[in-house]
Amino acid sequence: MKVSKKDLFVFNSIFEYDPKKGTLTYKWLPRKKSLIGKTLNPSVAASGYRYVMVGRKCFYHHVICFCMGNGATLLANEEVDHKDLCKLNDKLENLRLASKSDNMKNRRCFSNNKLGQKCIHVCKNGKFRVAVSSKGKRTHVGYFDTLEEAIIHRDKALKVFHGCFNSEDK
Protein backbone atom coordinates (compact mmCIF):
# COMPACT_ATOMS: atom_id res chain seq x y z
CA MET A 1 0.00 0.00 0.00
CA LYS A 2 1.48 3.31 -1.07
CA VAL A 3 1.62 6.17 1.43
CA SER A 4 2.74 9.50 0.01
CA LYS A 5 4.19 12.54 1.78
CA LYS A 6 0.79 14.19 1.41
CA ASP A 7 -0.89 11.22 3.15
CA LEU A 8 1.66 11.37 5.96
CA PHE A 9 1.02 15.11 6.36
CA VAL A 10 -2.73 14.45 6.62
CA PHE A 11 -2.17 11.66 9.18
CA ASN A 12 -0.02 13.97 11.31
CA SER A 13 -2.63 16.74 11.04
CA ILE A 14 -5.56 14.59 12.15
CA PHE A 15 -4.04 12.02 14.54
CA GLU A 16 -1.67 11.77 17.48
CA TYR A 17 0.11 8.37 17.64
CA ASP A 18 1.11 6.72 20.92
CA PRO A 19 3.89 4.24 19.99
CA LYS A 20 3.82 2.47 23.37
CA LYS A 21 0.07 1.73 23.25
CA GLY A 22 -0.28 1.50 19.46
CA THR A 23 -3.27 3.84 19.43
CA LEU A 24 -4.31 6.85 17.39
CA THR A 25 -6.03 9.81 19.05
CA TYR A 26 -7.88 12.56 17.20
CA LYS A 27 -6.11 15.90 17.45
CA TRP A 28 -8.05 17.80 14.78
CA LEU A 29 -11.24 17.27 12.79
CA PRO A 30 -12.94 20.03 10.77
CA ARG A 31 -16.57 19.12 11.53
CA LYS A 32 -16.43 16.88 14.61
CA LYS A 33 -14.74 18.84 17.37
CA SER A 34 -16.35 16.54 19.99
CA LEU A 35 -13.96 13.73 18.93
CA ILE A 36 -10.78 15.73 19.56
CA GLY A 37 -8.71 14.02 22.28
CA LYS A 38 -10.61 10.74 21.95
CA THR A 39 -9.00 7.48 20.89
CA LEU A 40 -9.83 6.33 17.38
CA ASN A 41 -12.02 3.22 17.28
CA PRO A 42 -11.26 1.76 13.83
CA SER A 43 -13.40 -0.75 11.94
CA VAL A 44 -12.17 -4.32 11.55
CA ALA A 45 -12.08 -5.87 8.07
CA ALA A 46 -12.89 -9.52 7.34
CA SER A 47 -9.12 -10.11 7.17
CA GLY A 48 -8.82 -9.16 10.85
CA TYR A 49 -6.91 -5.93 10.23
CA ARG A 50 -8.24 -2.60 11.48
CA TYR A 51 -8.79 0.10 8.88
CA VAL A 52 -9.45 3.83 8.86
CA MET A 53 -11.08 6.08 6.28
CA VAL A 54 -9.05 9.26 5.81
CA GLY A 55 -10.82 11.54 3.40
CA ARG A 56 -11.97 9.19 0.68
CA LYS A 57 -9.09 6.75 1.06
CA CYS A 58 -8.98 3.61 3.16
CA PHE A 59 -5.77 2.86 5.14
CA TYR A 60 -4.87 0.03 7.46
CA HIS A 61 -4.46 1.23 11.05
CA HIS A 62 -1.02 -0.43 11.39
CA VAL A 63 0.22 1.30 8.22
CA ILE A 64 -0.76 4.73 9.60
CA CYS A 65 0.90 3.87 12.94
CA PHE A 66 4.13 2.74 11.25
CA CYS A 67 4.34 5.79 8.99
CA MET A 68 3.61 8.25 11.80
CA GLY A 69 5.96 6.50 14.24
CA ASN A 70 8.85 6.50 11.78
CA GLY A 71 8.01 9.65 9.82
CA ALA A 72 8.23 7.49 6.71
CA THR A 73 6.30 7.02 3.49
CA LEU A 74 5.68 3.65 1.82
CA LEU A 75 6.29 2.68 -1.78
CA ALA A 76 3.78 0.49 -3.61
CA ASN A 77 5.98 -2.64 -3.20
CA GLU A 78 6.50 -2.16 0.57
CA GLU A 79 4.36 -3.59 3.36
CA VAL A 80 4.17 -3.23 7.12
CA ASP A 81 4.62 -6.50 9.00
CA HIS A 82 3.49 -7.43 12.53
CA LYS A 83 6.46 -9.21 14.15
CA ASP A 84 4.29 -11.15 16.62
CA LEU A 85 1.60 -12.00 14.00
CA CYS A 86 -1.08 -10.27 16.13
CA LYS A 87 -3.09 -8.10 13.73
CA LEU A 88 -4.33 -5.84 16.54
CA ASN A 89 -0.93 -5.09 18.14
CA ASP A 90 0.04 -1.79 16.49
CA LYS A 91 2.78 -0.77 18.93
CA LEU A 92 5.76 0.68 17.07
CA GLU A 93 8.13 -1.98 18.46
CA ASN A 94 5.94 -4.68 16.83
CA LEU A 95 5.81 -3.11 13.34
CA ARG A 96 8.51 -3.35 10.69
CA LEU A 97 8.96 -2.64 7.00
CA ALA A 98 8.89 -5.72 4.76
CA SER A 99 8.72 -6.74 1.15
CA LYS A 100 5.83 -8.96 0.04
CA SER A 101 8.23 -11.93 0.00
CA ASP A 102 9.48 -11.22 3.54
CA ASN A 103 5.96 -10.71 4.83
CA MET A 104 4.90 -14.11 3.45
CA LYS A 105 7.69 -15.78 5.47
CA ASN A 106 6.26 -14.45 8.72
CA ARG A 107 3.01 -16.38 8.84
CA ARG A 108 1.36 -19.15 10.78
CA CYS A 109 0.88 -22.71 9.65
CA PHE A 110 -2.16 -23.17 7.39
CA SER A 111 -5.30 -24.39 9.15
CA ASN A 112 -5.59 -27.45 6.88
CA ASN A 113 -2.06 -28.63 7.76
CA LYS A 114 -2.56 -32.04 9.38
CA LEU A 115 0.82 -32.07 11.17
CA GLY A 116 0.49 -28.55 12.52
CA GLN A 117 4.10 -27.91 11.48
CA LYS A 118 5.21 -25.40 8.86
CA CYS A 119 7.43 -26.72 6.00
CA ILE A 120 7.13 -30.40 7.05
CA HIS A 121 5.15 -33.02 5.12
CA VAL A 122 4.62 -36.75 5.69
CA CYS A 123 5.63 -38.92 2.75
CA LYS A 124 3.95 -42.19 1.75
CA ASN A 125 6.86 -44.17 3.21
CA GLY A 126 6.23 -42.58 6.64
CA LYS A 127 9.28 -40.30 6.59
CA PHE A 128 9.06 -36.56 7.18
CA ARG A 129 10.14 -34.28 4.31
CA VAL A 130 11.39 -30.79 5.08
CA ALA A 131 11.29 -28.15 2.31
CA VAL A 132 11.64 -24.39 2.81
CA SER A 133 10.51 -21.75 0.30
CA SER A 134 12.26 -18.43 -0.09
CA LYS A 135 12.30 -15.84 -2.89
CA GLY A 136 10.09 -18.02 -5.09
CA LYS A 137 12.29 -21.11 -4.82
CA ARG A 138 11.62 -24.25 -2.79
CA THR A 139 14.69 -25.84 -1.18
CA HIS A 140 14.58 -29.49 -0.16
CA VAL A 141 16.28 -29.93 3.24
CA GLY A 142 15.93 -33.68 3.68
CA TYR A 143 13.94 -36.73 4.79
CA PHE A 144 13.83 -37.63 8.49
CA ASP A 145 12.60 -40.64 10.46
CA THR A 146 11.02 -38.69 13.33
CA LEU A 147 9.02 -35.49 13.54
CA GLU A 148 11.35 -34.14 16.25
CA GLU A 149 14.36 -34.59 13.98
CA ALA A 150 12.52 -32.90 11.10
CA ILE A 151 11.58 -29.95 13.34
CA ILE A 152 15.23 -29.43 14.38
CA HIS A 153 16.41 -29.34 10.76
CA ARG A 154 13.45 -27.20 9.66
CA ASP A 155 14.24 -24.63 12.36
CA LYS A 156 17.88 -24.43 11.23
CA ALA A 157 16.80 -24.01 7.60
CA LEU A 158 14.25 -21.31 8.48
CA LYS A 159 16.92 -19.31 10.32
CA VAL A 160 19.14 -19.45 7.22
CA PHE A 161 16.48 -18.77 4.56
CA HIS A 162 14.03 -16.52 6.44
CA GLY A 163 16.35 -14.67 8.82
CA CYS A 164 14.53 -12.19 11.08
CA PHE A 165 11.21 -13.00 9.35
CA ASN A 166 11.33 -16.55 10.71
CA SER A 167 8.05 -17.49 12.42
CA GLU A 168 8.96 -21.07 13.46
CA ASP A 169 7.64 -20.64 16.99
CA LYS A 170 4.28 -19.08 16.09
Walk me through what this model shows.
This protein is α+β, with helices and mostly antiparallel strands and 170 residues long. The protein has two domains: 96 residues, Homing Intron 3 (I-Ppo) Encoded Endonuclease, Chain A (Alpha-Beta Complex); 59 residues, AP2/ERF domain (GCC-box Binding Domain). Helix content is 25%, strand content 28%. It is built from four helices and ten strands; from the N terminus they run αβββββαββαβββα. The strands form four sheets. It has a three-stranded antiparallel β-sheet with strand order 3-4-5. It has a three-stranded antiparallel β-sheet with strand order 8-9-10, with helices on one face. A hairpin with a 2-residue loop joins strand 9 and strand 10. The longest helix is centred in the C-terminal third of the chain and has 16 residues. It is elongated and about 70 Å long. The model has no long low-confidence stretch (mean pLDDT 83).
